[in-house]
Amino acid sequence: MSTADQPLLSPESYLTWAEIDVPAVRHNFRQMRILTTPCTRIFAVVKADAYGHGAVPVARALEAAGADMLCVARVEEALELRRHGLRAPVLVFAPPFGPQAELLLAADARGVVCAPEHIEAAAAAAAAHGHRLCVHLKVDVGMGRLGCKPADALELARVIRSQRWLQLEGVMSHLPCADSPPEMLTRQHIATFDAVRRLFEASGLHGLVWHLANSAATMDYPEAHFDAVRTGIALYGQYPSPEVRRRLDLLPAMTLKTRIVYLKDVAKGTGLSYGHTFIAPRPMRVATVPIGYADGYPRHASNRSVMIVRGREAPVVGRVCMDQVILDVTNCPGVQHGDEVLVFGRAGEHFLPADAIAAMHGSIGYELTTRLGRRVPRFYL
Questions:
Q1: Annotation marks residue 274 as catalytic
Q2: Mean pLDDT of all residues in 4-11
Q3: Which of 202, 236, 270 marks a domain boundary?
Q4: pTM attached to this predicted model
Q5: 178 and 66 within one domain
Q6: What number is the average pLDDT over the span 29-37?
Q7: Which one of the listed residues 47, 239, 293, 380 is annotated catalytic?
Q8: Options 149, 262, 264, 274, the catalytic residue
Q9: d(Cα 135, Cα 283) in Å, to the nearest integer?
Q10: Residue 13 resides in a domain
Q11: At 62, is the pLDDT very low, low, confident or very high (cuts 50, 70, 90)?
Q12: Which has the closest alpha carbon to 214: 100, 47, 3?
């Protein structure tokens, strides 16, 4: 099922489904705008299927809301956006190699380069097609993943500008610790990036778009905004970490639900699910729900997480299976077959934040939403 399309049936027809609150995404985008100046661009990150929310519908909403650029991790994601009519500029984070550079041109996307090999591949593809390709130079200020050394940035920029078919549009980096202390380390990273910027300007390289801030830095480090900010997780209503200041009214955009398909009473001493990692400590009523790690619900949630049944917390008992989870519904009066179960998100007055559920089993909200499998239909509200 394409994430670009609404499922043909209603939620009542499914056993497990996700509801995506598109107005919440637009609201969160406007909240990020509150923190930036009118001339600061907002680059909306929709990689990983918009963090599991559905890249095409979310990108459409963000494009309409005024996002200056859409950011993805891989060129295949850019091609998907173009196939569905998205017209906003698209920046692909993965450096181009061989056919990937060709696909950048096919997607009419910008590329990220940080080594001579990337520049050569991009220039060769652009020359072969007679079409100029915009690129952004990535500098490593502390992440250690991708990016040239700050001392090499100016020379690489000159190499890019010497290529007839390449246009150096921007310079970027990424902050590894903006969502966690100590603040001094992040301020050092920002200062390193700013030093590179000042070196470029002193050398006569003007008119570039400088961007560094992720969601956390957009909220907590105004000095990191430069010409543009790249917001990701905040657009989906989650704070990057507990340490990031709660200065905005973010609305969670995803709610995940399932239904009870089986109920039974078990005696004290009964083992449940694979390996009998849970033994009933008393007579219990348990329910089976059709969601599992094949849907993205993590196996690490086994015996650690909870869901909401009839307004009460129902603990996950036993190992999470590929397609099913067992819940302890002993304290959920009136529970019945077919009852709706809140896995995370909001349902009426009940709210289970994705990041809080993820924390119960040692993960983060990012992972919980991005892992959501494609067999779980998304309904766009």
A1: yes
A2: 70
A3: 236
A4: 0.93
A5: yes
A6: 94
A7: 47
A8: 274
A9: 64
A10: no
A11: very high
A12: 47
